Amino acid sequence: MTKQGLEQIFKSKFNTPSHFFKAPGRINLIGEHTDYNDGFVLPAGIDKFCGIAIAPSPKKSFQIVASDLNDEISFENITDQPVSSHWVNYIWGVIHAFKKRGFTIPAFNAVIQSDIPVGAGLSSSAALEVVFAKAFNVLFQCGLTDIDLTWIAKEAENNFVGLQCGIMDMFASVHAKKNHAIKLDCRSLEFEYVPMNLASNKILLIDTCVKHELASSEYNQRRLECESAVSKMKQNGIKLHSLRGASIEQVYEMKFKMSDDEFKRAKYVVEENNRLHQFVDAISKSNMSAAGAFLYASHYGLKHDYEVSCPELDFLVETVKSLNGVWGGRLMGGGFGGCTINLVETEKIEEIKSNITAAYHKQFGVSPKYYIASTGDGACEF
Ligand code: GLA
After folding, report:
1. What does the pLDDT look like over 80-105, one tens digit per residue?
2. CB neighbours of 72 closer than 8 A, spacing ≥ 6?
3. How many Å lie between the centroid of ligand 1 and the Cα of residue 167?
4. Which domains does the chain have, with CATH numbers?
5. Which residues does a 6 A CB cutoff place in the pocket of ligand 1?
6. Considering only CA atoms, which of 23, 29, 22, 1 is closest in space to residue 205?
7. What's the chain's average pLDDT?
8. What is this structure's pTM?
9. The pLDDT of residue 80
10. Which of 143, 146, 120 is nearest to 23 (CA)?
């Protein structure tokens, strides 16, 4: 994705000047499935972006070119309902969320180009929603805050795409800051930037290259299980609004009042929240071996208690454990495919990659992909 690339396509298609906006994908260092439980997350924006060239249109119709897909769409009206799994839902969802807040988005022309890999768990869809939200706010002078834009993008995903995701991905894409992760309290939305001083280490993402069908139905199911764990705890006299309010002692106290699944989900969420604070502490002291151990512990919980892993992710985490130069790793994002996130020594990266490729190929017949995650800034005009 480059400004020149966007400009060239926009010019040849619409022959008018345009404005340029971009929004990054994200990684999440630790704090998985905690956002919709009012907990803490630790995402960072990456230096891969979804970019758009956009300009108001003199015509009545909206025209959007998805250049990576070699596809385009033109429409005059926006329905209040999504159209079966079309990429335009992400944008309609955003337009709709503006409308709900009293802003009518007038017709525009746009070209989209992204270098965030799709389906790798790097939130390419959140970046698409955020980049349009940012652009509308600036172009049509809506005067909304960054938090408003975050909610707008989340609403688009929840209502038009159908994933009942939490706020992490959109928040990260809007608020990201180069060389920092964001420690976000998803209950109050207070946040602080945590410097990512990794010294001679890097974040290596290993992409399983699979996405299992159950990902979004199981995701929505986990939310329900967490809610029902909270109701059981409330019924039994514990005062709380969400799993954020529970201690690990309370979860064990309630073990036999809940189903086995409810207990395991609640236990994982409470432990993961605690782990996040310990991880931040370890990173701030450059204690990579402690930080890595928390990553492995997170994966263990996601696999056994939250049950959102899959054979490919487990294989990658098990395999890196035996390699020199790996501090720790775990599945990242919703689970059931996508990437693992690994803290590794920079100088060992090539050796790690070749070992993993050989082992993974032998096991699954395909090669994984690798990304070194460098941090990037949040959504902006460029
Ligand atoms: C997906 C969702 C996020 C978050 C993660 C799991 O990425 O979009 O809101 O819940 O899964 O941590």
Report:
1. 888 877 899 999 999 999 999 999 99
2. 63, 64, 65, 66
3. 8
4. 3-195 (3.30.230.10), 201-372 (3.30.70.890)
5. 32-33, 35-36, 165-166, 168-169, 333-334
6. 29
7. 96
8. 0.96
9. 80
10. 146
